[in-house]
Amino acid sequence: LTITDVEAIPFAIPYTKPLRFASGEVRTADHVLVRVRTAAGVVGQAEAPPRPFTYGETQSSIVAVVEQLFGPALVGTSVLDRELHRARLHRTIANPTAKAALDMATWDAAGQLLGQPVHRLLGGYAESVRVSHMLGFDDPQVMVQEAERMREAHGITTFKVKVGRRPYQLDVAVVRALREAFGDEVELYVDGNRGWTASESARALAEMADLGLTLAEELNPADDVLGRRWLVQQCPVPFVADESATRPAEVTREILGGSATAVSIKTARTGFSESQRVLHLAEGLGVEVVVGNQIDGQVGTLASVVFAAAHASTSARAAELSNFLDMSDDLLVEPLTITGGRMAAPTAPGLGLHVDPDKLARYRQDA
Ligand code: MUC
Ligand code: MG
């Protein structure tokens, strides 16, 4: 069980369809594959996606912090020593996706060593979860076509619509076009990535009042503290904290401060161990959670479905698991599949992750 080596491999895979949203745009998955090797020769793996516009990390900063600080802190410990890992890694602030990938890689190794799938080690609640697809900025017809394609090809009927453009009517028109195209057959919710002011958000929500939205996420900046509280008080659906509540303490602060009424959990930034802390905190506070997408590749998406399937409250809502479909290729030997609008949690020991060595050789950036 002893960790003998930790590796951080930068790789880059282009998107066929870039994702655009209020805080940025992703054209290439320039991620880092993190590997934790044990004395028994087992290798645990996970993916860290740099999101400079959200967490300040870059591909090189993730590689550097793993090689210089976090890797050496884990070598010599057991893959089961998660509290010790946390104590050591949290001496360094920030760097959430680097920490999260290391945590998930240790769970992957532990699952392989114990012969159990990680979703069962975490909680074992469900075999599969419903999938929600994120629709990035585009013209209304293009976004309707994209939703239609996802429904036809994968049976997906839940869509998170990116909003936060100016004027806000651009986005209201998209949501209206989606509702008109699909009627009651689809679930729709919106994510503003802090693009609007509180008053723009309030006007947009009022104009979308007849469109049956189920959630509203980060419509304006949480740092506009009073404006956010004013908005959340009048929001008719749960208001989801995503980038404003990435740690347990932030979740407490935002929920108790009246700045959110639901929480997005992303394994890309809180791994499995810290995501469980966030989940249990949300349950204790009595707020709903949604399993979010950090624009993950297939390795990261596998981690998200494992976490979502493991617990009752993470599998209650559709989890955001499908944006890897817009990548031109990926690292896994067996690509992930979505059928009937659902994705299954892997049943193989660990995360059931098999990275194709040829693909890794093709896309790695350090060779
Ligand atoms: C999301 O839910 O916001 C876009 C920016 C980010 O941090 O995550 C994605 C999706
Ligand atoms: Mg979000």
From TrEMBL:
Protein's UniProt name: Mandelate racemase/muconate lactonizing enzyme family protein
Protein's UniProt keywords contain Oxidoreductase: no
Classification via CDD domains: MLE_like (cd03315)
Keyword Aminoacyl-tRNA synthetase: no
Gene3D superfamilies with a match to the protein in the record: Enolase-like C-terminal domain, Enolase-like, N-terminal domain
Species the sequence originates in: Ornithinimicrobium kibberense
Pfam families, A to Z: MR_MLE_C, MR_MLE_N
Record family assignment: Belongs to the mandelate racemase/muconate lactonizing enzyme family.
